[in-house]
Design goal:
Largest interface: A-B, 20 and 23 residues
Largest sheet of chain A: none
Shape of chain B: elongated
Helix content of chain B: 55-70%
Distance between the termini of chain B: 19 Å
Shape of chain A: globular
Order of helices and strands of chain A: HHHHHHHHH
Strand content of chain B: 5-15%
CATH superfamily of the largest domain in chain B: Glutamyl-tRNA reductase, N-terminal domain
Helix content of chain A: over 70%
Structural class of chain B: alpha/beta
Largest sheet of chain B: 6 strands, parallel
Oligomer: heterodimer
Chain lengths: ~270, ~450
Amino acid sequence: MQHIDLAVAILYLMSTATYVAFFLFQKKLLARIAIALLAAGFLGHTSVLLWRYISNGSLPVRDFAQTLSLASWSVAGAFLLLELRFRLKIMGIFAAPLAAATLLVSFFLPAAPATAKPIFSSLWLSFHVIAVFLGEAALALACGVGLLYLIQEHAIKTKRPGFFFKRLPSLELLDATGYSCIIAGFTLMTIGLAVGFIYAKSVWGKFWSWDPKEVWSGITWVVYAALLHERLTVGWRGRRAAIFAIIGFGVVLFTFLGVNFLLKGHHGSFTRW
Amino acid sequence: MNTGSASPDRGCRSTEGARKNKFTIVLLGLNHKTAPVELRECLAFSRDETSTAARLLLQEPAVRELVLYSTCNRIEMLMATDNQLKAVAAAKRFISDFHHVALDRFDAALYVNVGDQAVRHLFRVAASLDSMMVGEPQILGQIKEAYFTATRHKTSGVILNRLLHRAFFVAKRVRTETGIGDHAVSISYAAIELGRKIFGSLADKSALLIGAGEMAELAVEHLRRQRAGKILVANRTFENAVNLAQHFGGQAVAFDEIGTCLQDVDIIISSTGSPKPIITREQVKKCIRRRRNRPLFFIDIAVPRDIDPEVNRLTNTYVYDIDDLKGVVEENLEERNREAVKAERIIDEAVLRFHAWFESLEVTPTIIALREKIQAIADAEARRAFRAMPGLGEDGRQAILRMQAAMIKKILHHPTLFLKKNSHRDDRAQLVDTVRKIFGMDDRP
């Protein structure tokens, strides 16, 4: 399995390099090669995760290394789905390196001793984790697109059309894609959280136990709900929406990592190393 | 191609004795760099004149083939000749007679390119590297038209036909492989390109034209070509607004309505003579919320400016004035010049390839190449036959090889004789070309 892991990382890296080349030279063929490489990596990654799932009987999120690997898989998966739907090739310049970097970091983390708790093997839990991870990956992409938006907006506003201006798509397209990413991410996160509540009820007998992760997930959810609400009512778009998408992802990152490192709670084992 | 004395196949020439001079490609002309517009005006050929002029000049015995193109920036004659000096003199005399302009008035502005240099010049012109505005696409169409006129009147022959086709091919390659035509180099088009970077597609985006003016109206034309939506026209004189609106298939609005229009339109093109700004920051700010933050793009072509520059600081609002647009155009021009370097490389390659073909049009290299081709086929087949007959002795092999040699000799006897016999004819290039085509001797078209 180690070999396949490594092959997946190499494919992600090659995809990254090809996306960089696509960005520089703007040849459509390069974008097609890049997405093919990423898709190949994703298939390999999926098979590794499936193999671990079957051999352990539970989702491979037992230590931080496994969690990061799953996060990397989610980023690749979310990007592939969104690319299929919206064809915004330029998003790859953000998604491919993110997937590659996350996976590479996971290689350098020690594996924790296997202590399979019975509560890990529930299908509900797997569903909860995958939905939340895919949702967060989509929000990560929204953050990336938001960054691209700000770069492009800056170029147009300051009237210095240069390197990025030519290579980045229109503001409208970036804005629309970011919005779609947030809708997809928010929906998945909502479903994931809902499943989490049901699962918590079945294991601990209560929906909500003021676990720090739960609290911060709630905060994240409210942030994105506010962003979507503003968009639908007063038409928040463009620069402000992009900044909000970046801040929102900061909160996501804190919920994902910060809570586990700084605070404690029953989600702790994800980041044990 | 060569300029005469430095012929690489001089050896062949001496053996063939009284053979006529080799064909040469000569390009004679003047352009915006060598001649002022007053002179170009006097010497330009109108469309009808082009075909008459070509037929007249072709009566000169030295001029074998001719393509003439005349645009507002250049007048050039492309000739295939077997007597370069006579052809150039005849062409000069012809231009002078045709337009009744003394030769010494324009002789200094003329350039004469010969051989590879003429080919390179044509390729550069067709690829729009020699244009006043590098990368502008019209010149290729103008040369194509001139070429079709030439083929219709049969003033071009096998050499120039081939040359022009190569020129079109090279121009297309330059356009697709370099970014030479990618960036707008006119103010109005640069503005529209900016709009596309803001709105993505301009389809169904509505525009408001304030005032009138050539650049502003051109920008509206570009918008219409991009299938923009509603077009509103405002003017201090309502009648003018109505007239312009009719012209664009738009709708006239009163000057006082501009404030309310800002809620609905996406692009505002302003070009009035007003000494004070027409649209203020407060006006725009008021409508942003009602627009639900949809972006607004102001194109301010007026001097002094019509749009308060402070408007640019509002969110999702972009203001470009004439100086900003000029800056964009300058940057785009620099970009085109950078791309032109790549284009020169493509052209170098094409000149080399054309040179190879042109050289092959001579009789002797064709005979040699033909012999080599047939020999190669025969050798390959003989090898196959030997493999199929492992029991064949050395005597048998020798007999087959002798047969092979005899067959080649007999097969090639008539074609060789035919080529040699006709090597003094004026249309020998045509014959050689036909022979090469029949035997498929030029691997690439």
